[in-house]
Design brief:
It is a single chain. With 448 residues, the chain is α/β, with parallel strands linked by helices. It has 13 helices and 14 strands. Helix 3 crosses helix 5, helix 3 packs parallel to helix 13 and helix 12 runs parallel beside helix 13. It is globular.
């Protein structure tokens, strides 16, 4: 069957809401497809070539942000704080890995969530599950939970507002490496790891000044920092509406995000999501978890990256600290025997979710770190390069994951638990994670 932005509609699509009125969905998709794109094909191609370099071991990918963005959190401080923590982490990673870091946010479109059940029952009343702000609203009333196509337009607008602000901040020098003090979050003074971070900032400042003295000028290339956007391209009508052809380039681009990914629950070889993704020209990521088999992965490699295009495919594995040692090696072998080049990335969040005794979803800092450390080691032994990390994090001072230098315990979680979906690392935990990864990489580079 020939591919088109709508050809997914002939395949079984999991994780889609049932809208009360299909005609209205069609109307909204029509409107969305007339609106200007959020990102451009040349940005997408530039990211693809950077990801190709990461796959070849010359760069490192840092991807992170909320599990789900909320429309009500589309506000300046939340967005700026997210950029700040990603910038700080990337600075630490540049320092430790001696590689240029590609920064990709889970933002400007991360509004749709896969759910384990289609409905939720409370006090005898059954309503559709909350599937993210792009689909329905969270309060437990029939009106709020009924999927509303208009929310796709609201989501597109929020994504545009978010991206506009991010582009403005970056053009204005917010991300200038000469001024890492602009990125300071309140914690720098209080964090148990503050001194370590400050040392890195100073040493990077010194290297930059040294290079500029040698070159006799501002080092423009280094000085400029880019951010790219990514989200789980889960809600296919929204993605379809933003899939376009552009002048003077071949193929079709998803212009709603630079780097969309396929979630673990929507990776069926014969399903609608894989059909949609096979036809777009963007670099894409595929989440792989414990249920992924070598045969299934082999099939996905053929369909999603038939020509072994550099930078096209990132495999983001998320097994859990207790499963990665068993699950990852056979899948590395599958990729090696396919002789395709992929970028390997570790998401140490989604395989490590647990519930506390009072039912809150949490993740432990130690499990997250353990999965990451094992990932580095397994790849090193297999002769492959772990070239990226993918986190759920926020620049805010939330209490959702336990552990970290401040020793958050289960009893602390209720203090500032904000996520409606998965628990995120708070800014201190996120920065600490970057410092610990850096230490690990440095140790490996020394042959330890
Ligand atoms: C996510 O990244 O929020 C997610 C749902 O991931 P996965 O598909 O890996 O479970
Ligand atoms: Co999540």
């Amino acid at each position: 069957m020939p591919w088109s932005p709508a050809s997914w509609q002939c395949k079984p699509a999991t994780q889609q809401p049932s809208y009360p009125c299909q005609a209205e969905v069609q109307r909204v998709v029509g409107q969305l497809s007339m609106l200007p794109p959020l990102v451009t094909s040349w940005e997408i191609e530039s990211l693809k070539s950077q990801l190709a370099e990461a796959a070849a071991g010359r760069r490192f990918l840092l991807q992170g942000g909320d599990c789900a963005e909320r429309f009500e959190e589309c506000e300046s401080s939340v967005i700026a704080d997210k950029l700040k923590i990603l910038l700080q982490m990337s600075l630490v990673l540049v320092h430790g890995t001696h590689k240029r870091v590609i920064r990709v946010g889970r933002f400007a479109g991360q509004y749709a969530k896969p759910r384990s059940a289609d409905t939720e029952t409370r006090d005898g009343q059954t309503l559709p599950s909350y599937r993210g702000d792009l689909i329905n609203s969270i309060s437990f009333t029939e009106a709020d939970r009924t999927p509303d196509p208009q929310l796709m337009l609201r989501g597109y607008e929020r994504a545009a507002l978010t991206l506009n602000f991010i582009r403005g901040l970056i053009d204005g020098g917010f991300a200038d490496l000469h001024h890492p003090e602009y990125w300071d979050l309140g914690f720098v003074k209080h964090s148990p790891r503050a001194a370590e971070y400050q040392r890195i900032v100073e040493s990077i400042g010194e290297s930059l000044r040294f290079m500029e003295t040698l070159a006799g000028t501002h080092v423009g290339e280094i000085n400029r920092v880019d951010f790219y956007t990514s989200h789980d391209a889960l809600h296919l009508p929204y993605e379809q509406a933003q899939t376009r052809q552009v002048p003077r380039r071949e193929g079709w681009y998803n212009l709603a995000a630079h780097f969309p990914w396929i979630g673990m629950r929507t990776a069926d070889l014969d399903g609608a999501h894989v059909e949609y993704f096979r036809g777009i020209a963007n670099p894409i990521a595929l989440k792989i978890g414990p249920s992924m088999t070598p045969k299934w992965l082999g099939g996905l490699l053929d369909v999603l990256d038939p020509n072994d295009e550099p930078g096209r495919l990132t495999l983001t594995h998320r097994f859990g600290a207790d499963k990665i040692a068993r699950c990852l090696p056979p899948l590395i072998e599958t990729v090696q025997s396919s002789s395709k080049t992929v970028l390997w990335c570790c998401d140490p969040m989604h395989g490590n979710t647990q519930r506390t005794s009072n039912g809150l979803k949490t993740r432990s800092f130690d499990d997250i770190l353990s999965e990451l450390e094992q990932a580095f080691e397994i790849h090193q032994q297999a002769g492959t390069y772990l070239g990226g990390v993918h986190f759920e994090l926020t620049g805010e001072n939330v209490t959702e994951c336990v552990g970290g230098a401040r020793g958050l315990a289960e009893a602390d979680l209720s203090r500032a638990y904000k996520s409606q979906v998965d628990p995120r690392l708070n800014y201190e935990q996120a920065l600490e994670m970057a410092l610990l990864i850096t230490r690990r990489v440095a140790q490996m580079n020394r042959g330890g």
